[in-house]
Amino acid sequence: MSPVVVFSTTSDIEASVVLALLDSHGIAGFRISGNPQAILPMSVSPLGEVRIAVPEDVAEDARSIIESHREDVGARVVRLRDEFDEIETRVGYRFKDRGLLEHALTHKSRAAEDVSGGVADNESLEFLGDAVLGLVVADVLFRQYPTYDEGQKSKIKASVVSTAALARQAEEIRLGEHLILGRGEEKTGGRFKQALLADAYEALIAAIYLDGGLEAADAFLRRELKGAIDAGATEDFVGQDYKSALQERVQALGRSLPEYRIAGEAGPDHRKVFSVEVVVGGEVLGTASGKAKKEAEQEAARLALAKLAQ
Fold it and tell me: 4, 170, 178, 300: which could join 197 in a potential S-S bond, CB 3.0 to 4.6 Å?
């Protein structure tokens, strides 16, 4: 029985929503190329459209289900109820151009699997977001803590914009649930990887900046990072050295001194991300990632201290 196309879209994530919708009603849909006879699991038409087809005998039912989940605006029909509503609510910002948000959520593993070459990953947005983040945090510190010297402000900034800190911010808004990943990255737990979450968070910052300007990005970051900045600005935290604290702790416990070893590296040379393990007596007490080895070591030491305190 020939497959029948029942839906087409240029949004990969919308296609996934439709497939899940059909599946919930017991209809097995699949993505196909421009030729309905040539079935390919992850293909698109030459124009970048993702087409969804179903067996001919359930085509009418499938169309009815899809239509029941559309929103009518006058005489025209718009896309399915926005699949980004949830993340926009958590972020506290509504995009005028939802394509920017989809771009920010698209990992390079997904772009690499696209046969049309029409899917762009979020690396360029990540680069821009990093710059916007640095500017806003520096401005906050300059205005809010005028008596702090450059060294103190630099330490606070480093703690706020570190890979681990940004990954925690991403986890707070459950950003990982909305990432658009390739099949390989999905299978290896990409939604929970610190470096991937931090990168997506920076891409999100850039998307807000491009959509609403610096004012919108500034408002988002001041709201989201207030707790981290305030914590970093306390006198005790400014001088915090987790590696030294861990060394003192394990010595007090009569255990061997901690060792730090590189567990892996990822990314291009100019944006390398290091994964570091801290080992005490042959036991891995903490693993963390960072754009600098020292940053990753400090976060691994922090996690090790937390584990020893349990």
Answer: 170
Task: Annotate 38-88 with DSSP letters as a single string.
Answer: SB-TT---TTS-EEEEEEGGGHHHHHHHHHHTS-EETTEE--SS-TTHHHH
Q: Can you tell me the distance from the alpha carbon of 23 to that of 52, in angstroms, rounded to the nearest whole number? A: 12
Which one of 130, 185, 277, 295 is the catalytic residue? 130
Annotated active-site residue 150? The verdict is no
pLDDT tens-digit readout, 225-254:
998 888 877 644 444 678 888 888 888 888
Looking at this protein, which amino acid is placed at residue 7? F
Query: Catalytic one among 83, 126, 199, 202?
Result: 202
The 3-state DSSP composition of the chain as helix, strand, coil percent (nearest 5) reads 55, 15, 30
Q: Which residues pair with 8 in a beta bridge?
A: 51
Residue 45 has pLDDT above 50, yes or no: no
Own/partner pairs, 21-30, CB within 8 angstroms, 24+ separation: 21/65, 21/66, 21/69, 21/80, 22/52, 22/54, 22/62, 22/65, 22/66, 25/61, 25/65, 27/54, 27/58, 27/61, 27/62, 27/65, 28/54, 28/55, 29/53, 29/54, 29/62, 30/3, 30/54
Say how far apart CA 163 and CA 189 lie, in whole Å: 17
Q: What is the pLDDT of residue 46?
A: 41
Active site residue 130: yes
* Angle CA 89–93–98, to nearest 5: 95
Provide Rg for the chain, Cα atoms: 23
**Would you state the structure tokens that stand for residue 81, as one six-digit string?**
């109820």
Q: What digits encode the pLDDT tens for the residues 152-197?
A: 888 889 889 988 889 999 999 999 989 989 888 888 888 989 889 9
